[in-house]
Amino acid sequence: QVRLVESGGGLVQAGGSLRLSCVDSARTFSNYAMGWFRQAPGKEREFVATISPSGSLIHYADSVKGRFTISRDNAKNTVYLQMNSLKPEDTAIYYCAKSLSTVVEAASTERLYDTWGQGTQVTVSS
């Protein structure tokens, strides 16, 4: 069973926008913090954004602050990543992830997530 499914990736010119979505099949979605991570070719996976179960706590990597917005709709079991003012250095495979415990509020540490989507490719051309 695939529990996290990302969508919305694609090819876009620098300065453009994309909206990524991640749907969770689990009924307990609203109890877990969610995060977005990305991995570019030849680089390690890095943190992008995280949101607490209620949406009250949000953290972003410095590289995306002011450009990306994470949000969630618990009624739809979905977390979103709105990406504006995209840059070529944003090119990567983007993964959504679910925290390993309901006690996690919002975390940038990869070890605090244990369920991952398959990834969606984002390519930004110059």
Descriptive account of the structure:
With 126 residues, the protein is mainly β. Helix content is 0%, strand content 48%. The protein contains no helices and 11 strands. The protein has strands at 4-7, 10-13, 18-24, 34-39, 46-51, 58-60, 68-73, 78-83, 92-99, 113-116, 120-125. The strands form 2 sheets. Strands 2, 4, 5, 6, 9, 10 and 11 form a 7-stranded mixed β-sheet that branches. Strands 1-3-8-7 form a 4-stranded antiparallel β-sheet, with no helix packed on it. Strand 7 and strand 8 (78-83) form a beta hairpin. The chain starts with a strand and ends with a strand. The model has no long low-confidence stretch (mean pLDDT 96).
Task: Briefly say what this structure is.
The protein is mainly beta and 126 residues long. It has no helices and eleven strands.
* Count of helical stretches: 0
Low-confidence stretches: none
Return the string of H and E elements.
EEEEEEEEEEE
| Share in helix | under 10%
In percent terms, what proportion of residues is strand? over 45%
Shape by Cα distribution: globular
Briefly note the structural class of the backbone. mainly beta
Largest sheet: 7 strands, mixed
Global Rg:
13 Å
Rounded mean pLDDT is 96
Distance between the termini: 38 Å
Number of strands: 11
